[in-house]
Amino acid sequence: MRPRLLQSRLWLEKNDLFPRGKLAFVTLYLLALDVLLVLIEKVAGLFHGSFAASLGGWTLFLSVIVGTFACVLGARWASARLLWRLRNRLVVTYIFIGVIPLILLASLAGLAFYLFSGQFAAYILTSKLDSELRSLNAANLIISNEIAGDLNAGRKVNALNDDNSDQQTKLYVSAWLDSSLLVDRSAAGMSPDLPAHIRDNLMGVVRDHDRFFLRSVIVTLTKPGKLTVIISRPFDLRLLAQLGNELGEITLFRLDTETREPTPLYNAGTVPQPRRLLDLPVRFGAFIPVVNWMNGQAASPAPLNGETRFSTLYDHAFSSIGDLGPTIEFLLVILFIGLVLFEAAAWYIGTRLTRSVTRAVAELYRATTHVNRGDFSHRIPIVSKDQISALASSFNLMTSSIEKLVLEQKEKQRLENEITIAQEVQAQLFPRHITQLPDLEVFGFCRPARSVSGDYYDFLPLGSERLLLAVGDVSGKGISAALLMATIHSAVRAYSIEGIPALQHVQAVGAGPTLVKYDPVIPGAEVSPGNLLSLLNHQLYHSTPMEKYATLFLATYDGAGRTLNFSNAGHLPPLVLSQTGGLRKLENGGTVVGLFDDLNYDEGSVQLRLGDIFLAYSDGVTEPENEFGEFGEQRLIELVQENRDLPLERICEIVTAAVDDWSGAAEQPDDVTLVLARAR
Question: pTM (2 decimals)?
Answer without folding.
Answer: 0.52
